[in-house]
C-alpha cells in the first residue's frame, strides 16, 4: 500500500512557484498578491485563512487580509470586492466560505472579477472548465489531479467514483476526470444514491468528498483500489492539545490495508488545496500584468 503524500507533491509545486515568483518580482517590481476576505470568526475558517497567509509569506507573495465582522452587510462586502477588482496591485481575490447566512454567496462570487477569481468559483470559470476552455479551476480538484499525476496514477479508461456533488469539489472533479486526455469513466454518487456500496465497490479510483467523518468503510472498497480522501473533519479529542483531531471522509485505518494507494488526512489533499491557490494566484498575476503592458 502506497501513501500518497500531499505534502511531498506540494513541496514540488512550491519550488516551482518560488522561482516563478522571484522572476515575476524581478520583471514587474511587485509581487503576485492575494486578497483574502473572511466574514465572521468561525474557528476552522480562521485557521484556513491563516494557512493561506503563511503560504503567501513563505513564497514572497503579497497578501491582504480583510477580517469583516459577522454582521457585515451584503453591500459593504460587495463594495470591498469592487475596490479589490479595480486595484491593480491585487491579482487574486478569495472570499472564505461558508459565509454567514444573511449573505448571498452566489451573488458575492458573481461579483468577483473573473480574472481574479483564483478559487475558480465564478460561473464563467465553472463554465469554461465544463467545456474544456482555459480559466481558473477550483483548487481542491486541481490538487487531486496533481497528486494523481505526481504518482503517475493514470485514470485512462478507469472507473472513477466521486462521492459528493458540491459545486466546489464533486462537480468540477467529475468534469475534470472525464475530459479528453484524462479519459476516466466517472460515476457521481451522493446522499440519495441507492445501493451506494455496490457502486463504490466498482471503483478503481474512489474520491471521497461528502464531508462526513469516516464515512467510507472497508466494505465499500474494492481490493487494490486507489482512494483519494478530500474530507477535512474536526472531531473532538480532549487528548489533543487543540482539543480536536482531523479525520477524513474515509476510515483510513480500516480502508488503507485494502488499497493500492491512499491519501492521508492531514497531509493529503488539504495541503494541495493551498498550493493550488498559490499556483492560481501566480497565473492571475502573470495574466493581469501582461494585459497591463
Ligand atoms: N473560498 C474558499 N476557498 C477555499 O479553498 C476554502 C474555503 N473557501 N473554505 C474552506 C475550505 C477548506 N479549505 C482547506 C484548505 C487547506 C487545508 C489544509 O491545509 N489542511 C491541512 C491541515 C490543516 C490543519 O491542521 O488544520 C491538511 O489537510 O493537512 C484544509 C482545508 C479551503 N477551503
What can you tell me about this protein's structure?
The protein has helices at residues 6-28, 43-59, 74-85, 105-110, 123-130, 139-150, 170-178, 196-200, 252-255, 269-292; strands spanning 2-3, 33-39, 62-68, 92-95, 159-163, 185-189, 205-208, 225-229, 233-236, 244-247, 259-262. It has a 6-stranded parallel sheet. A 3-stranded parallel sheet has the order 3-2-4, sandwiched between helices. The protein folds into 2 domains: 28-113, Leucine Dehydrogenase, chain A, domain 1 (Rossmann fold), CATH 3.40.50.10860; 139-270, NAD(P)-binding Rossmann-like Domain (Rossmann fold, 3-Layer(aba) Sandwich). Helix 2 packs across helix 10 and helix 6 packs across helix 10. The protein is built from 10 helices and 11 strands. With 293 residues, it is an alpha/beta fold. The structure holds 5,10-Methenyltetrahydrofolate. Residues 47-48, 51, 94-97, 119, 139, 232, 246, 265-267, 270-271, 273-274 line the site of 5,10-Methenyltetrahydrofolate.
The total count of strands amounts to: 11
Q: How many domain regions?
A: 2
Query: Please, how many helices?
Result: 10
Please report the distance between the alpha carbons of the first and last residues: 51 Å
Stated plainly, the CATH topology of the largest domain is called Rossmann fold
Query: Quick one: overall form?
Result: globular
Mean pLDDT score? 97
- Small molecules held by this entry: 5,10-Methenyltetrahydrofolate
Helix- and strand-based class? alpha/beta
Rounded Rg = 19 Å
Biggest sheet features: 6 strands, parallel
Question: Would you identify the CATH H-level superfamily of the largest domain?
Answer: NAD(P)-binding Rossmann-like Domain
Question: What is the CATH C-level name of the largest domain?
Answer: Alpha Beta
The arrangement of helices and strands along the chain is EHEHEHEHHHEHEHEEEEHEH
Helix content: 40-55%
Q: Which stretches are low in confidence, meaning pLDDT under 50 for 5 or more residues running?
A: none
As a percent range, the share of strand residues is 15-25%
Main β-sheet, spatial strand arrangement:
1-11-8-7-5-6
